[in-house]
Each structure stands twice: as structure tokens, then as C-alpha cells.
Design brief:
alpha/beta; two-stranded antiparallel sheet; 37% helix; binds NADP nicotinamide-adenine-dinucleotide phosphate
Length: 216
Amino acid sequence: MKVTIIGSGNMANGIGTRIVAGGNSITLLARDEAEARKLADDLSKSKPGSVHGKKLEPTAIRDEIVILALPYNAVADVLSQVGPALAGRVVVDITNPMNATYDGLVTPQNSSAAEEIQKLLGSKSRVVKAFNTTFASTLVAGEVDDQPLDVFIAGDDQAAKQQVAKLVRDGGLNPIDAGPLQRARQLEQMAMLGITLQQPLGLGFKSGWKLVKSKK
Ligand SMILES: NC(=O)c1ccc[n+]([C@@H]2O[C@H](COP(=O)([O-])OP(=O)(O)OC[C@H]3O[C@@H](n4cnc5c(N)ncnc54)[C@H](OP(=O)(O)O)[C@@H]3O)[C@@H](O)[C@H]2O)c1
């Protein structure tokens, strides 16, 4: 599979690491082309040629899956530049729309970042929520305490979710279909809880949410 990632920060590195490990390839787009190229060089060390870094512009978006590895408050700005180029594509929202004091979400009640992004893009793009409950460093490792990360996936388009699930599985992680896009509301609250527990429990952003299943 060929995937575009917009952003060159911690999550672009984490998700990018898993995509390369899964044998898939990436076009990495950033407003600063040098940053995109630098991360592309790092990510493709294990598999030369698997990641290309380019400047963020509409004509650079060619892949069916596009991951927005951006802060929530930058998404509207970026979509105002490249939104039309996302028509017909699967757009993966990984954001946690935390407020400035990190004790609440900035999205309207009865909505989620994913649903707000779907509204901005319109029905021509298929938005899928994923990776918002997995910390960047755990994605680089691919596991926590020798257990593969669970990646919760929400979306209204079944085929789009299946493509994202394949990408997750290829990267050695465990995809979980969490239901329709509206379930992003719970996933974003879940991530906020996870973030607020890091300091009091001394978890160092190296923890993960795991759904355990009884073998009995
Ligand atoms: N970090 C985690 O463990 C984690 C876990 C789950 C979900 N998330 C979510 O993942 C998203 C990305 O987090 P992160 O940790 O990767 O953040 P980050 O390290 O700060 O990276 C953010 C990226 O977004 C780019 N960006 C910011 N504003 C932009 C704009 N207006 N136009 C174009 N590019 C812009 C930055 O580019 P510049 O370098 O040019 O500023 C940078 O490449 C956030 O929504 C966060 O809530 C993070």
C-alpha cells in the first residue's frame, strides 16, 4: 500500500515506523520540505526508497490513504490549502483536540474532532479515526511490555476502515473496529484519560490501552 502522511513530528515518526515495518511505502509531506526529507531519510534507513519527503502542496497528494499527523488546531488551516485534493481519499484523523490546560476537549459537545473534520471535508472524503489512543514512542517500539498495541478504528465507510486495519495489521499491531465515526467521541475521551494518567501513575507516555479477551 502507498500512504501519504501530512506532518513530520512525533506521530509521523511513530506511524511511519510501523508502515515501513509493514512493507508499505510513504510520501511524507510537511510545510518545511527539509523537515519532510529529514524524517523520510530516517524512516527509510531500514528499507531504502520506502519513504519520500516532499513539500506539502495539493499536487503532492496522490495516495488513497492520507494520514493527518497534525495538531487539531492546525487541521482547518491545512485543509484550506489541500482539502480539494483529499476528495475520493481515505483521510485518517489521529488528533486529540485537547484544550490549553489539557483537562478537556475543544470540540463541541455531541461531536468529535473526526466528525468536525468530516464536515470540513464533505462527503467526498472518507474520514477514519485511528491511532489517537497510541502514544508516539509506543508506535516506534510497536509494542508495550511485549504486547502488540491495540489500534481502535472508527468510521462510517467499512471499506475505508478495512484498508486502515490492513495497514495496522501489516505493521504488527492489532486493529479493533470500534464502530461508526461517532465512536470517535469515546476514543478522544479515552485518549484524554490516558494522557491525564501519565503523570500521576508515572507512565512516561509508554503505556497503551489493551482490550483483553478471556480464553476460558
Ligand atoms: N504524540 C503522541 O503521542 C500522540 C498520540 C496520539 C495522538 N496524537 C495526536 O497526533 C497529532 C500530532 O501529534 P505530534 O505529537 O506528532 O505533534 P508534533 O510532534 O508537534 O508534530 C506536529 C506536526 O504538524 C505540523 N504542523 C503544525 N501546524 C501546521 C500547519 N499549520 N501547517 C502545516 N503543518 C503544521 C508540524 O510542522 P512544523 O514542524 O512545521 O511545525 C509538525 O510536523 C496531534 O493531533 C496529537 O493530538 C499524538
